[in-house]
Design goal:
Elements: H1 2-17, H2 20-37, H3 39-46, H4 48-60, H5 77-107, H6 110-115, H7 121-151, H8 159-183, H9 190-207, H10 219-225, H11 229-241, H12 257-278
Helix pairs in contact: 2-7, 3-5, 4-5, 4-7, 5-7, 5-8, 5-9, 5-11, 8-11, 8-12, 11-12
Length: 287
């Protein structure tokens, strides 16, 4: 009679140890190791914004009058395009990483095998979110450090601007994460995943004020970009890292914080709805 009791107690202890939060942490550690072992992911999502900022700043940097449309004089290239690179990095780490990795894991049967284990699905997705948060924050820290040390870009000192940065980062990362999970069902195979994901995202970067001054784009391209979250995320980041006088240079003459919160929140909700309705643990041909 004693042995079954002890075994029941051991099972209860094991269940307490294997709680979803504990599993999620272990999963996040595993995801981080896998992410940084993939050279393509490190170069084209983690380091890409940093490389582009350095390259463009060296090639096109023109001193303190690079952008002189704002009242009171201009600023150099690195400072102007740092916000766009930050926004781009958030979407690369969250949307691109998840959309490609989940498509590959679905194709090779990893998702199907994981679904058949006792691991709660929420722990799996929390592990992905944990990986994205660590990688995203590390990328931002490195990007800000390179901008400051290599190009003399000083970070803002006002607490209000860092508060704006915080909600932009949270909404942008959350939206990019759920949209990446939702979009992972679009590629029909692992081989096509990179092209199907990276291609549209590159186009969005060009029309959303990441690589070009948003005001210089044709109005019809501005209207298209305004439908998608990257444009609003980049604009929110500009309100943090550019001088206040640059607000007058925006197309609307305002940073539009209210609209930014609204659009990013709407995309977050849309992504959640699509995830719930369309996410698949196995390939289409598996039934």
């Amino acid at each position: 009679m004693t042995t079954p009791t002890l075994r029941s107690g051991e099972r209860r202890i094991a269940r307490r140890k294997a709680t979803p939060p504990r599993i999620a942490v272990s999963r996040a550690v595993l995801e981080l190791k896998s992410y940084f072992r993939e050279r393509d992911s490190v170069i084209f999502s983690f380091l890409f914004p940093i490389i582009m900022l350095g390259l463009f700043s060296v090639v096109f940097g023109g001193g303190e009058d690079t952008f002189s449309d704002a009242p009171g004089g201009g600023i150099d290239f690195a400072r102007y395009f740092l916000p766009g690179m930050l926004a781009s990095g958030i979407m690369l780490v969250s949307f691109q990483t998840l959309a490609i990795s989940l498509a590959i894991e679905r194709e090779d049967g990893t998702l199907k095998r994981l679904r058949g284990t006792p691991m709660p699905p929420v722990a799996y997705f929390l592990g992905k979110v944990g990986m994205i948060l660590v990688v995203g924050l590390s990328q931002i820290a490195l990007l800000l450090a390179v901008a400051a040390l290599a190009f003399g870009v000083e970070p803002p000192t006002e607490p209000a601007k860092w508060l704006t940065f915080a909600w932009c980062y949270v909404l942008g990362t959350a939206g990019g994460t759920v949209l990446g999970i939702a979009y992972s069902s679009v590629p029909r195979s692992a081989k096509s995943a990179s092209a199907v994901v990276v291609g549209p995202l590159i186009v969005l970067q060009f029309i959303s004020g990441v690589f070009f001054v948003f005001n210089d784009l044709p109005s019809w391209l501005q209207n298209i970009a305004s439908v998608f979250p990257l444009k609003w995320l980049a604009q929110g980041m500009r309100s943090v890292f550019l001088p206040d006088r640059f607000e007058q240079v925006e197309v609307s003459g305002s940073w539009q914080h209210g609209q930014t919160v609204l659009i990013l929140s709407l995309w977050l909700i849309v992504g959640l709805v699509i995830c719930v309705r369309r996410f698949r643990w196995q390939r289409r041909d598996d039934g």
